[in-house]
């Protein structure tokens, strides 16, 4: 505006100079006076205009300076102008905006905080549910997955990324489970529908107990379903194992009972016409009664061992004496079958701190088996060796041997070998199981090597930790 | 009377012996086997009129013996007595034996006298049905 006024004044001066040169003196003087007045008025107007513009611009400049960076401030102050009357409305509006921005920022912070709390809580719940062994699958009314914990993801073979929002029927393939989900009660609080589900893959086979419940909000409006998967594979195996055990026990008890009952009946019916037949029947009854008694003892021992209630009474015992005592139990049977017995024990066998009754059970079991499975005129050898860690007693026979497929299971409870039935030998399948458990309780073990038809060698291994070291008389190396 | 043939399969020698003796004294021709495979061989060889088998045996159990018999056209209708010492429920056994057909189950411990009577009943029935 100043530039324009200067141009105007210069223009007027130029016109005045021209007129002064060309016009008459008076006319020129009058005209010039008028012109000077006009110029003066123009200058006054200019001055007033300038002041008015400055009066408006200054508060705006001040406001602009105050507003600069105001939103970055933690607590933005309201605009305060030295002379803001002319833009009072604008300042008022700006101050309202500052307050609104402050409130919005506060709300945003509160929202952010609430969101963080929510995420943390969600993470906590999710972590807690992930820690569960049971699978939890939450499904919305739109039949899409809301949540699946880690176990559910594993059971259903889903990756964590693809679970949420996925249609549940794409996650669940088993037709029975699909049907269960479809039938799950629509009423809130209804009793859950249960089923057992078998999931098999190449590596394993698992059984799940699946429970589907409806989920409702506080108004009892159904909002979805919750599926709980519980892996009951081990439970089912334990039940099956228990059932198999009871079945085996029943079978093993009834077998000698059947023989006893049958032979007694034959005797009652007078079918043993001669003395020899009678003796045979009585002998069988006698043997089967012993067998029944052994079976009951074995069952009690197994039961105690499995319950951890078998108390060992370790005493320093000469190994040689233990072997001799055990041989005494089976020597009549050895003689009866005409079996050749070779005993090749080291002169000075060590003393062991063992439960001698229990070790006697082991030795009698192993020697008894050797006698049972060795044919007449066969041979049984007993020898001893030692290693830096163990004292070993070897019992070898020339009996029927053990088939290769039987070897890994020969110590299993109630396992009976292929050769056992064909060789006409009776047994419960508990003796070796008990013998190994007893040796393991002593820190030792029993091992077997055999080939079908070529006899068997059982090695009873005593850990050197069982050696007696404090009794001078007993301290001997093998 | 033409002597009837019976194959007895049991892994227990005493039980094989007592059943065999009782049936032989009653006039039956008896062949005994200690396992399922041997028993089936005897059955194929001697074409018995009756098969008596234990249920619980190593390798091949009594159900498997019955199943193999039913797959053989010669033994499809052979009467079988299944002797069981286990605690498998009657319903479980029945569901299997119903499918296999013409099988009578008896439980251990059994009376040889009663077993013989059952054998006679089966042999005397015109169509060799177990019941």
Outline the fold blueprint:
The complex is a heterodimer of chains A (478) and B (131).
Chain A: H1 2-22, H2 25-67, H3 88-131, E1 135-140, E2 145-148, H4 150-155, H5 160-163, H6 168-171, H7 175-183, E3 193-200, E4 205-216, E5 222-231, H8 233-268, H9 275-307, E6 315-318, H10 319-337, E7 340-344, E8 351-354, H11 356-373, E9 379-386, E10 390-397, H12 418-422, H13 431-441, E11 445-450, E12 456-463
Parallel strand pairs in A: 7-9
Antiparallel strand pairs in A: 1-2, 1-5, 3-4, 4-5, 6-8, 9-10, 10-12, 11-12
Chain B: E1 5-9, H1 13-25, E2 29-33, H2 36-46, E3 50-54, H3 62-71, E4 80-84, H4 90-100, E5 103-107, H5 112-124
Parallel strand pairs in B: 1-2, 1-3, 3-4, 4-5
Structural notes for this entry:
- The complex is a heterodimer of chains A (478) and B (131).
- Chain A has 478 residues and is of the alpha+beta class.
- Chain A folds into four domains: 2-57; 133-231, 2-Layer Sandwich (Beta-Lactamase), CATH 3.30.450; 240-307, Signal transduction histidine kinase, dimerisation/phosphotransfer (DHp) domain (Helix Hairpins, Orthogonal Bundle), CATH 1.10.287.130; 315-474, Histidine kinase-like ATPase, C-terminal domain (Heat Shock Protein 90).
- In chain A, 53% of the residues lie in helices and 17% in strands.
- Chain A has 13 helices and twelve strands.
- Chain A has helices at 2-22, 25-67, 88-131, 150-155, 160-163, 168-171, 175-183, 233-268, 275-307, 319-337, 356-373, 418-422, 431-441, and strands spanning 135-140, 145-148, 193-200, 205-216, 222-231, 315-318, 340-344, 351-354, 379-386, 390-397, 445-450, 456-463.
- In chain A, strands 2-1-5-4-3 form a five-stranded antiparallel β-sheet, with helices on both faces.
- In chain A, strand 9 (379-386) and strand 10 (390-397) form a beta hairpin.
- Chain A starts with a helix and ends in a 15-residue tail after the last strand.
- Chain B has a five-stranded parallel β-sheet, sandwiched between helices.
- Chain B contains five helices and five strands.
- Chain B has 131 residues and is an alpha/beta fold.
- In chain B, 41% of the residues are buried.
- Chain B is 44% helix and 19% strand.
- Chain B has a single domain (5-124), classed as Rossmann fold (3-Layer(aba) Sandwich), CATH 3.40.50.
- At the A-B interface, helix 8 and helix 12 of A face helix 1 of B.
């Amino acid at each position: 505006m100043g530039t324009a006024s200067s141009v105007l004044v210069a223009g007027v001066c130029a016109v005045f100079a021209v007129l002064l040169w060309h016009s008459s003196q008076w006319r020129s003087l009058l005209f010039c006076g008028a012109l000077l007045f006009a110029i003066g008025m123009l200058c006054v107007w200019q001055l007033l205009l300038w002041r008015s513009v400055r009066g408006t611009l200054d508060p705006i400049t001040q406001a602009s300076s105050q507003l600069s960076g105001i939103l970055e401030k933690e607590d933005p102050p309201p605009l305060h102008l030295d002379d803001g009357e002319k833009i009072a409305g604008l300042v008022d509006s700006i101050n309202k905006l500052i307050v609104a921005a402050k409130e919005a920022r506060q709300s945003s912070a509160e929202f952010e905080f609430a969101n963080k709390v929510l995420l943390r809580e969600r993470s906590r719940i999710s972590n807690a549910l992930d820690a569960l062994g049971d699978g939890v699958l939450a499904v919305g009314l739109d039949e899409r997955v809301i949540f699946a914990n880690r176990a559910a993801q594993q059971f259903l073979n889903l990756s964590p990324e693809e679970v949420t929002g996925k249609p549940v029927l794409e996650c669940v393939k088993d037709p029975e489970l699909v049907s269960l989900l479809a039938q799950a009660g629509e009423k809130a609080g209804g009793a859950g529908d249960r089923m057992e589900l078998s999931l098999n893959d190449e590596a394993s086979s698992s059984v799940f107990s699946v429970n589907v419940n409806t989920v409702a909000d506080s108004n009892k409006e159904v909002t979805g379903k919750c599926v709980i998967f519980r892996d009951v594979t081990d439970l089912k195996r334990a039940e099956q194992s228990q059932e198999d055990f009871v079945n085996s026990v029943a079978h093993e008890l009834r077998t000698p009972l059947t023989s006893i009952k049958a032979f007694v009946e034959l005797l009652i019916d007078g079918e043993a016409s001669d003395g020899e037949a009678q003796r045979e029947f009585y002998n069988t009854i006698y043997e089967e009664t012993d067998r029944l008694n052994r079976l009951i003892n074995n069952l009690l021992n197994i039961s105690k061992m499995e319950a951890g209630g078998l108390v060992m009474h370790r005493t320093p015992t000469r190994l040689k004496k233990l072997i001799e005592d055990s041989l005494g139990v089976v020597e009549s049977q050895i003689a009866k079958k005409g079996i050749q017995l070779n005993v090749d024990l080291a002169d000075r066998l060590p003393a062991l701190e063992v439960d001698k009754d229990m070790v006697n059970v082991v030795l009698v079991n192993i020697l008894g088996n050797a006698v049972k499975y060795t044919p007449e005129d066969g041979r049984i050898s007993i020898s001893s060796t030692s290693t830096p860690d163990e004292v070993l007693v070897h019992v070898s026979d020339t009996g029927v041997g053990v088939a290769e497929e039987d070897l890994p299971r020969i110590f299993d409870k109630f396992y009976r070998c292929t050769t056992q039935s064909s060789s006409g030998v009776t047994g419960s399948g508990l003796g070796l199981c008990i013998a190994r458990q007893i040796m393991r309780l002593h820190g030792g073990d029993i091992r077997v090597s055999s080939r079908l038809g070529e006899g068997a060698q059982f090695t009873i291994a005593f850990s050197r930790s069982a050696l007696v070291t404090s009794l001078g008389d007993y301290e001997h190396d093998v | 009377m033409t002597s009837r043939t019976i194959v007895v399969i049991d892994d227990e020698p005493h039980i094989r012996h007592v059943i065999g003796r009782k049936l032989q004294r009653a006039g039956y021709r008896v062949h005994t086997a200690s396992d399922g495979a041997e028993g089936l061989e005897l059955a194929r060889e001697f074409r018995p009129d009756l098969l008596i088998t234990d249920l619980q045996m190593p390798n091949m159990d009594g159900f498997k013996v019955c199943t193999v018999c039913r797959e053989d056209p010669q033994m499809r209708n052979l009467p079988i007595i299944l002797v069981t010492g286990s605690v498998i429920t009657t319903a479980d056994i029945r569901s299997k034996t119903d499918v296999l057909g013409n099988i009578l189950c008896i439980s251990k411990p059994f009376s040889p006298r009663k077993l013989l009577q059952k054998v006679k009943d089966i042999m005397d029935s015109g169509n060799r049905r177990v019941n």
